[in-house]
Amino acid sequence: MVEVNGEKGPNGQNDGSVTLEWHQAHVAVVTIRRPHRRNAVDLATLRRMVEHQTTVAGRARVVVLTGEPPAFCAGADLTGVEGDEFADALGRALRGFTQLPCITLAAVDGPAMGAGTQLALACDLRMATATSRFGIPAAKLGLSVDQWTIERASHEFGWPIARHMLLGTGVYSAEQLLVQGGVHRLGGLAEALEWADDLADLAPLTIQAHKRGLEAVAERLVVDARFDELRTRAWASQDALEGPRAFLEKRPPRFEGR
Fold it and tell me: Are 192 and 186 in contact, with CB atoms under 8 Å apart?
């Protein structure tokens, strides 16, 4: 692969939190590179991801989203999740993958928790190693995902799994999700790139039309004013401060519902 949009440090290694490489002429690979944080995303990471989406639009026929081992994305970096700025950036990154006029393929190896599951859901297709794990543990942190994520999880994983993830903080392996269709194939990055090569040979205008049609169906369920009110209340609560604080202090959270 040829790197086209990464920053090099003095030791020759890439210092960017997200890199963009081209596997071949029409297959772009976007890699989250924060292994020291298990690829948990912060504000800068999400902004860089959106920049890469802009770069590949119009050229790529397939975009592969992956993470540098040992994780796909362990969630949001709780040292940098404050205020509306992060939530807005995450929303732009998620919707950016759905708005690209090409196939997006999540290549998951390792944990894809919280924001990691959201990013995987934002992609059209998902390939994962059998033991990779998916979950949305927002209720353990006193936070709330947006309605787009709830709608997406319900469509892509099915109601029972979405309910268990969101209300019971259930965690599922890729092998379990394969049976339900939430993961489309099992395999690592090499297998994902082989699949991407095959997908890149499909008729791009057909793909654009079909993808837009699928997104149009999904968008009918995205907006609900009452949900937005409840989500804003959760994010503004003391519990939303307590959850991340307890996580960072490695202790059980003490939620008071206020």
Answer: no
Instruction: Return the percent helix, strand and coil in the chain, to nearest 5.
Output: 50, 20, 35
- Tally helices (H) and strands (E) across the chain: 10, 10
Q: What is the DSSP string of 192-228?
A: HHHHHHHHHTS-HHHHHHHHHHHHHHHGGGS--HHHH
Pairing type for strands 125-128 and 112-113 reads unpaired
The structural domains of the chain, ordered by start, are: 2-189+203-248 (3.90.226.10)
What pLDDT tens digit does each residue of the chain (258 aa) get? 544 444 333 333 344 699 999 998 999 999 999 999 999 999 999 999 999 999 999 899 999 999 999 999 999 998 766 668 899 999 999 999 999 999 999 999 999 999 999 999 999 999 999 999 999 999 999 999 999 999 999 999 999 999 999 999 999 999 999 999 999 999 999 999 999 999 999 999 999 999 999 888 877 766 678 788 888 888 889 998 899 999 999 999 999 888
Position 235, amino acid: W
Asked if residue 18 lies in contact with residue 45, where contact means CB atoms within 8 angstroms, the answer is yes
Task: With CA atoms as reference, report the closest residue to 157 among 138, 141, 135, 142.
Answer: 135
Residue type for 234, please? A
pTM for the complete prediction? 0.89
Q: Tell which phi-psi region holds residue 38, choosing left (phi > 0), alpha (psi between -120 and 50) or beta.
A: left
CB 243 within 8 A of CB 143: yes
Would you say 130 and 173 are in contact if contact means Cβ atoms under 8 Å apart?
yes
CA end-to-end distance (rounded Å), the chain: 50
